[in-house]
C-alpha cells in the first residue's frame, strides 16, 4: 500500500493493499476502500463511507460528511456508497444518508468535475457526467448516461431519467424525462438529446417514435393523463417509448413542461 507519511488513517479503516493515498489525507474508522483506488492530496473520507474498485479521487474532496439536514441526529448510522471506476475531480462534496442503515449511493463509471455537491440520500446511476459546480439536493435520483452541464441546481426529490441532458445554469424543480434536453429558469424541455441517443445506438425510427410521444404529451391538446391513455393504445411500443410512458406515469413531483420551438425537425 502506497501511503504518504502525512496521511492520517484510522487503524479501523479497511483499505485494499493496492490503494494509494496522497499527502494530508484523513481517513476515518468504518471506511472501506477497494482495489486500485487512487486518492490524491487533502481528501477527507469520513466514517460510513464505502468506496469500490479503481476509483480516482482528485485533491480536496470530502466524502461521507454529515447531512445538511437540521433534523438529522449525528449518532444515526448511515452511509455513503460508491461503486467502481469513477473519477471525482477537485473539491467534490458528498454527504451520507439520513435514514438509519441507508446510504447516499453513487454507481459506476461516473465522471464528476470540480466542486460537484451530492447531498444526502441521493442516488446516482452509471456512466453520468456532471460538470463544474453541479448541485444535487437531498433525495435526488439520477439515472444512467445523464449529462449535467455547469452550475446546474436540482431541487430535492427530483428524478432525472436516462439519457437526459441539463444545460448550463438550469434550475430543475420537476422530474426530467428520458432522452430530453432541459434548459432555463425553471428548466423546460427544449429538444431531445439526439446526440446522446445516437451515441447509445438508438435508431432513427425509434428516435422518431420518441419524438412523436413527446408531441402527443406536450402538443396534442390533451392533458397528461389523456395523452398517456392515447399512447398506450400501441400494443407493441419500442422499449425506449415504453420507458418514457412509464416515467410520466410514475412521476410524483410532476414532469418539466415543454418550451415549444417552432420550425423544428423531427429529430430536435
UniProtKB/TrEMBL annotation:
UniProtKB keywords: Acyltransferase, Lipid A biosynthesis, Lipid biosynthesis, Lipid metabolism, Transferase
UDP N-acetylglucosamine O-acyltransferase C-terminal domain span: 175-256
GO molecular function: acyl-[acyl-carrier-protein]-UDP-N-acetylglucosamine O-acyltransferase activity
UniProt cross-references to CDD domains, sorted A to Z: LbH_UDP-GlcNAc_AT (cd03351)
Enzyme category, top tier: transferase
Keyword Plastid in annotation: no
Keyword Transmembrane in annotation: no
Enzyme Commission number(s) from the entry: 2.3.1.129
One matching Pfam family: Hexapep
The protein's name: Acyl-ACP--UDP-N-acetylglucosamine O-acyltransferase
Top-rank lineage group of the source organism: Bacteria
